[in-house]
Amino acid sequence: MQPRHSGASLLTQVEVKRSISVLTAADWLRLHKVARALCRDAAFGADDLLQEAFQRALDGTRQCARTLDIVHFLAGVMRSIASDWRKARKRRPEMSLVTAAGSLQDVVLQVRDSAPVADEVLAVNEEAARLKAAVLALFIDDGLAQRLLEGIMDGFAGAQLRSLFGLSETEFASKRRLIRRRIDKAYPKDWTP
Q1: Cα(190)–Cα(193) distance, integer angstroms
Q2: CA distance 81 to 107
């Protein structure tokens, strides 16, 4: 497998450190929002995830292309780490030692099954449907934004949505900004109104 970028097209560790040191307050806010979103319903914290992303960027484990904005790069690193951590947790289920009937002599290893039970799946699906309806309701006055958001939620790529609705790149970017701002205003802290 060949590397995607040549050494010259990657930021050096010094350049990464400099880019991180000049992050604005808005950049920090964006990074914290991404970290919190990625840690929702996870066994790890947003600060740990953000710290790990910085560590990997600074020690050169993860390399940033010169064409990529540092905030987007760090968000991608966090997304990758969160995915890896979730997969690792599924491979190693939670275990705890419990005593049988209060006797210290009869210690039992209890392994928690990581597969969700039907009630948990149903609750998660109901909550997702409720949240989707609430977010779509934010755009009741803008049918185009509402349909674009539905497409985004269904996993359509930006180019697909632009061509489907006949939007220019500028019009599409403008609608995406409107969508993001309304959602951020309605849900400023981890999707809780």
Answers
A1: 9
A2: 35
